[in-house]
Amino acid sequence: MKQWTGDVPGSYSKEEVQEYCVLCYEWQCFRANVLKGCSTERKLEWLKEWYDTKVDRWPRRTRVQVDNYLNALKRGGQLSMDLVVQR
Fold first, then answer.
1. 83 close to 70: Cβ distance less than 8 angstroms
2. For the whole model, what pTM was predicted?
């Protein structure tokens, strides 16, 4: 995947990011065991799969997790502001 095709990431409160991302064991395992070390293209594919399998059950949590990760990829220069893979 060369570009994120979902919604543009939103911004969330520190509390939501803390609860849904930092303190969520399942998300942290996914990040460490699946996303870490992958190409940016592959990360987007995995994020899409995560989103598709989780969003019906936990819509807000899933949205915060994926959006926060996409925003981190943008801050790190891996994604452009329009969510196209840069590196």
1. yes
2. 0.94
Closest CA to 6 of 50, 38, 36: 50
> What pLDDT, in 10s, does the model give residues 3-36?
999 888 888 999 999 999 999 999 999 999 999 9
C-alpha span between 71 and 7 (Å, rounded): 12
Closest-CA residue to 68 (of 12, 1, 4)? 12
Q: What 8-state DSSP symbol labels residue 75?
A: H
- Nearest-angstrom CA–CA distance, 26 and 7: 23
The number of angstroms, rounded, from the C-alpha of 87 to the middle of its chain's C-alpha atoms is 16
7/10 Cα distance (integer angstroms): 9
